[in-house]
Each structure stands twice: as C-alpha cells, then as structure tokens.
Amino acid sequence: MATKLYYHDAYISLFTAHVLRQEQDKDGRWLAVLDQTAFYPTGGGQPFDTGFIGEQQVVNVEEVDGEIFHYLDSPIQDLSNEVCCTINWERRFDHMQQHAGQHIFSAAFDHLFGYKTIGFHLGNDAVTIDLETEQLNEEQAEAAEQLANRIILENRTIETKWVTEGELSLYPLRKETKVKDNIRLVIIPEFDYNGCGGTHPKTTGEVRAIKVLNWERQKKKVRLTFICGERVLSQFDQKQKLLLKLTQLLNAPERDMEQAVVKMVESAKAAEKQIEEQLGLLLHYEAREWLDKCTDHQIGIVFQNRTIQELQKLARLMITENNQAIVFLISENENRLQLVCARGEARAESMKKILSNALKVINGKGGGNDSFAQGGGDALVSGEQLLDYVQQIASKDDICNE
Ligand SMILES: [Zn+2]
C-alpha cells in the first residue's frame, strides 16, 4: 500500500514517487497509483488535492479499496524514472484552515450549548456544519464564534495520534468514531478530541479567524455557514468593495445605506403606481378616440407590441363607454398574435365562440365567456388577416349565444 505522506507531514507539497501503475478506468480517464503520495483523496468532508505529477495535471484524487487513484488530464509518458510531484498548496492549505476551523467551531458549540455537529461540508466558497438543534439564536452564534476565535488566538497545538479501539476510552471524544482500527485522532489539548482522517495545520493560530456568514433551520437541525482563514480576508475585501460601490451609487455613507435603500424602494413603488394611473388615464382617452373614429359599432384594430393586459383594459373601457360596441383588438408581438374579443351589454354575439374559431387559425390558446374572451397563438397569418377572419365570423347569424 502506498505511503500516505500527508499523514507524516501535512505540509509536504513537493515530493518524488515511483509510478506503480497507470491505467484507464471504464470511462477512459487516466489514473496513476504511486508508491507514496502527499495528494489527499476526497474524504471526511475534505475535498481532494490538485497539482501535478510530472507534466500531467492531477484533476481528481480518490481512495478506492485502500489504493489512491490520481486522475490525470493525460497519461505520464516516462514510467521508468521517479516523477516529481507538486501539490497546489494554496488549495490544500485553504482546506487545512477550513477543516481545522470546523473542528474548533464544532467543539465550541458542543462546549457551550451541547449542540452536536452531525454534518460537515467544505465547499468552494463556504463551509457548513449541521448542528443537532432545532434553533440557534444570534447570541449563541456570537458566543461560539468568540470562543472559537479565542482558541485560534491562543495558538494551541493541533496534534494527531494513531490509537487502537482499546485506547479510545482514554480520550474525551466529541463524537463516536466510525473507524474501528487504526484510528486517527486530531487533538487540540483540553479542548477537542476527535477522530478524523483529514489534514490539519500544526497550530490553531494558522486558522487565523472564523466568521459566521448565516444559518438556517432545516427540519430538526440548523445549517450554519461560515468561513475560516484567508477566505475571511478575501470575502471582507469583496464585501468592502461592493459596499463602497453602493455608497457611491446611493450617495449615502455606509451607516445610512439601509435607510437610503428603503427610501429608494419606496419611491420606486410610488413612481410605479403613478405610471400605472397615468397609463390608465391614457387608455381611457385612447378608447374614446377609437370610439369617435368609427361609424358603426363594430371596432377592429391591429396593434404592434401591446400586452394582452393593455388590450383587455382598452376593450373593457370601449364596451363600458358604448354598450352597442363589439370590439376586436389584436396585437402583433414578434412571432405571436394576441387577441381580445369583447361586446357591449346590448349585443348578443358570443365572444367565446368567435375566439375559439379564431384560435384555430393561429394554433392558439385562450378562454373567457360570451361577453369577453382573450387568447394568443402563433403568427401564422398577419394581424389584418386574422381581423378579417374574426369579422367574417362575427357577421354570421349563428354566432349569438344560445
Ligand atoms: Zn475532521
């Protein structure tokens, strides 16, 4: 079995190795097995390392039946000599910071409130733990964050120890270990004792800081999102730049920003309402104008790019104004046709019938009742052609409701 260098020293990022085997898996992906490796395979919530074996890029690392598979972007050409391997240290050290930070934070919640960690995910942007509690309040999150940051500041050692099942009782473990032999403990003396196969820094100080981002209740647990290490600085930088941009855009200092946004949202809502009122008024005038223009009571108009809501409002205004009116409004919207059929109270034609006939021509869908109906379909004919057709149907005697 290959020597797992990351268990001898988590800081090895450069090493040489012999390639024991190179092959393609059933999906055609190249993989290499080495006699020793510092590449950490996905496991225990910690993602795999990336880097290079010789010239080849390591794109994934998995442990399968005790063997460590290094998945490569292309096969290694020369297998006779030792290969030089490098690990993407920035990625690995970030994982070490997040992982050790998680141990510290989980222990802090356990010490302070007895909340057990039942899930852990180390993501690209943030880390989550699932706490076995139905609720978490602001004060609790703050207290745990403070304790965790104190442990970091105290720069305690982080030790690892291989123990047998029998020796486990000597340690106050935070949770039961799943592994039964060759158990690896990660220990922060007097604070946390935990079975873990991940990579960790030598001291808590290297975690630098822990910052809670958010949390949410999920059924019977709380999922807490946080970040550690360099991520705290990079996210602070990102958020600070965003805030600065917003202070310029809103022309308000940071402390007044919330008020400025509330004001902006309110004034946008008021403006929207005003526009709607003005549009209503305009439609009213428009309806009058169309009614004045036409000599008989049958009105047919083809528009471009008007919404079905606008057509409906306009049609309603017209039939309210003139109860003798029968109104067909069509709008050509790119490759669609919208149609509204409406009649005044004094008329008897069935709008539903007329519409359903018209919709057949444009492969459309719609609905309504005998006095008001609307629908839309594909522009298989022009707006004018559809209007002609609709007016023809309306002129037949049998189109009145039974
Ligand atoms: Zn761990």
What does this structure look like?
With 402 residues, the chain is an alpha+beta fold. The protein has 3 domains: 5-87, Elongation Factor Tu (Ef-tu), domain 3 (Beta Barrel); 93-237, Threonyl-trna Synthetase, Chain A, domain 2 (Threonyl-tRNA Synthetase, Chain A, domain 2, 2-Layer Sandwich); 286-400, Roll (Diaminopimelate Epimerase, Chain A, domain 1), CATH 3.10.310.40. It is 35% helix and 30% strand. The chain has helices at 5-8, 89-113, 138-153, 230-250, 257-293, 308-321, 351-361, 383-395; strands spanning 3-4, 14-17, 19-24, 30-34, 36-37, 51-53, 56-64, 67-72, 83-87, 117-122, 127-131, 159-163, 183-188, 192-195, 210-218, 221-228, 298-304, 326-333, 336-343, 365-368, 372-378. Strands 2-9-6-7-8-4-3 form a 7-stranded antiparallel beta sheet, with no helix packed on it. Helix 5 (257-293) packs across helix 6. The longest helix has 37 residues, at 257-293. The N and C termini lie far apart (88 Å). Bound molecules: zinc ion. Zinc ion is lined by residues 44, 99, 103, 196, 198. The site of zinc ion (ZN) has 5 residues, from helix 2.
